[in-house]
Amino acid sequence: MPFLLICLVTGMVVAVPVWMLWQRFGTRRGLDGVKRFDPREAVPCTLEPVALSAQLVREVARRDEAGR
Fold first, then answer.
1. Among candidate residues 31, 61, 63, 38, the one with its CA nearest the CA of residue 49
2. What is the top-level taxon of the source organism (predicted)?
């Protein structure tokens, strides 16, 4: 049992740095989308209210505030 535990710990000690180096210098080399992202080309995004039970969320919130 101690032999298996020693092998497990040794394998993890060796595998974690190798995995980190593989991620850094491997064939994929990180996320391509992040590297090619240019904030100047970003498109603005607006959030619209959602209809719940055929009523807009804004109307429900106003009704809740008025009822208090």
1. 61
2. Bacteria
